[in-house]
């Protein structure tokens, strides 16, 4: 089975002949704005292995950027898709009710760690993507609070629609397409590894809470803020877990001022962090979010996303304000129901914890050997390695990471960067990755770090 195989490069150079033809056609017909730096064409894939049309096999540590937690083409998901497609492909949920939408909504309503208000019940709305559910979560928060502004954070990524690219911190994603949306204000996310000069670790929490209060003073008063939107683990921002002490304080600020707390779990959901949702850690500590958004791994590659909140919040939205033609598509919902079964039956929550423990132990060991590794951090199997030119100055080793990705892919390991400076390698391997595949992946990555570290002067 392909899912049990190891990476293998047989072409004398990448891309191989057949893959090169596809990539050449891509350049001819697809806008260059849809960029890709990898010499990889996917011909078939299973588990954590991608095979290209030339027969090269790659170990996938990106997983569609967190989409494939149960692996490429999981046989049970494929079977569920086939079964549903033979009955019907689509029925717009505003027109006809289909049981897949209702059943998946029921399961997520019971599983999501959102704060309940009065009824003790949660409700679920489906859309097609992470950007769509984040945008709808903000609409729902505004409808419930009757307020027009939100607070987001430095390093955040929430999508590329008009509203969500405004919410997204990195403005390279909004180049030349302004003006952006109004009513979006930004505070500093607690990036403890890169505290501002002069701020001691013991004062970090107070500093970051002060930055939120500055928004109230300089942008909009607290009673005009509908919601704060937080990633439990920042994805594009560099795989930075939100400190629990900070979340606890943010929850208190929200409660004192009638502000909703939205957890953006588009990338961190469905087992990635050692819980079904990362905000389960928040709930266990006593401060659950009001609204949760999720997408990516919800349906193993089919377009689907969900907004989850208590009945009182969800039912505050006027008829017609939320909805969409394809949201909660029947085939995608069938895949989503199967994904939940697989996570439970294959014990992938525990597997995520085990993979994460192994990653953290391995990467932290490397940190003691290679000065170019400045920080290792994560939650569950959502782990990041931050590379720096110097451990004292912490100057980002951006070019090193760019070259590291290219060296690794030519050895059969697909990696992706992240972080404000693009100097973080993020680990998003499918949770079905085998122990042997992990071992080989670690070997390729460390060998490549050693190879490039010997040329460090090139990057300094």
From TrEMBL:
A Pfam family matched in the record: Aminotran_3
Which segment of the chain is annotated as a signal peptide?
none
Look up the record and name the cofactor or cofactors this protein needs.
pyridoxal 5'-phosphate
> InterPro entries given for it?
Aminotrans_3, Aminotrans_3_PPA_site, Class-III_PLP-dep_AT, PyrdxlP-dep_Trfase, PyrdxlP-dep_Trfase_major, PyrdxlP-dep_Trfase_small
Keyword list, A-Z: Aminotransferase, Pyridoxal phosphate, Transferase
Q: What is its EC number?
A: 2.6.1.19, 2.6.1.22
Concerning SUPFAM superfamilies, the annotation shows: PLP-dependent transferases (SSF53383)
- Catalytic activities: (S)-3-amino-2-methylpropanoate + 2-oxoglutarate = 2-methyl-3-oxopropanoate + L-glutamate; 4-aminobutanoate + 2-oxoglutarate = succinate semialdehyde + L-glutamate
Q: Does the keyword Transferase apply?
A: yes
Q: Does the keyword Transferase apply?
A: yes
The pathway noted for it is: Amino-acid degradation; 4-aminobutanoate degradation
What GO molecular function annotation could you give as one example from this UniProt entry? pyridoxal phosphate binding
Q: Which family does it belong to?
A: Belongs to the class-III pyridoxal-phosphate-dependent aminotransferase family.
Q: What is this protein called?
A: (S)-3-amino-2-methylpropionate transaminase
């Amino acid at each position: 089975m392909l899912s049990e195989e190891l990476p293998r490069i047989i072409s004398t150079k990448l891309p191989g002949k057949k893959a090169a033809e596809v990539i050449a056609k891509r350049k001819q017909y697809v806008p260059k704005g849809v960029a890709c730096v990898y010499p990889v064409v996917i011909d078939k894939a299973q588990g954590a292995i991608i095979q290209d049309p030339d027969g090269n096999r790659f170990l996938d540590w990106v997983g569609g950027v967190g989409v494939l937690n149960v692996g490429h083409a999981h046989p049970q998901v494929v079977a569920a898709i086939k079964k549903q497609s033979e009955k019907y492909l689509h029925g717009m949920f505003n027109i006809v009710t289909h049981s897949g939408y209702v059943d998946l909504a029921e399961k997520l309503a019971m599983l999501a760690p959102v704060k309940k208000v009065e009824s003790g019940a949660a409700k679920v709305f489906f859309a097609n993507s992470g950007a769509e559910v984040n945008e709808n979560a903000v609409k729902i928060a505004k409808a419930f609070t009757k307020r027009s502004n939100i607070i987001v954070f430095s390093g955040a990524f929430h999508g590329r629609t008009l509203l969500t690219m405004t919410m997204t911190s990195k403005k390279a994603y909004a180049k030349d397409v302004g003006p952006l949306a109004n009513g979006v204000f930004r505070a500093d996310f607690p990036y403890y590894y890169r505290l501002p000069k002069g701020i001691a670790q013991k004062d970090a929490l107070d500093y970051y809470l002060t930055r939120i209060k500055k928004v109230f003073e300089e942008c909009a008063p607290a009673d005009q803020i509908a919601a704060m939107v937080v990633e439990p683990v920042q994805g594009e921002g560099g795989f930075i877990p939100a400190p629990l002490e900070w979340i606890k304080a943010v929850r208190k600020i929200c409660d004192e001022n009638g502000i909703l707390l939205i957890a953006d779990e588009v990338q961190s959901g469905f087992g990635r962090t050692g819980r079904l949702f990362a905000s389960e850690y928040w709930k266990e500590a006593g401060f659950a979010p009001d609204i949760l958004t999720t997408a990516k791994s919800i349906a193993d590659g089919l377009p689907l996303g969900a907004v989850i909140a208590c009945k009182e919040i969800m039912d505050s939205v006027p008829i017609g304000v939320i909805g969409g033609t394809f949201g909660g598509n029947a085939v995608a919902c069938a895949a989503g129901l199967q994904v939940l079964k697989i996570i439970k039956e294959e014990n992938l929550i525990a597997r995520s914890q085990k993979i994460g423990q192994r990653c953290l132990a391995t990467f932290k060991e490397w940190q003691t050997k290679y000065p170019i590794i400045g920080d290792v951090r994560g939650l569950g199997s959502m782990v990041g390695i931050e590379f720096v030119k110097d451990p004292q100055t912490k100057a980002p080793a951006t070019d090193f990471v760019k070259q590291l990705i290219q060296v690794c892919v030519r050895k059969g390991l697909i990696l992706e960067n992240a972080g404000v400076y693009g100097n973080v390698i993020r680990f998003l391997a499918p949770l079905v990755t085998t122990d042997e595949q992990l071992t080989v992946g670690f070997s390729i990555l460390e060998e490549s770090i050693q190879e490039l570290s010997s040329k460090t002067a090139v990057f300094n």
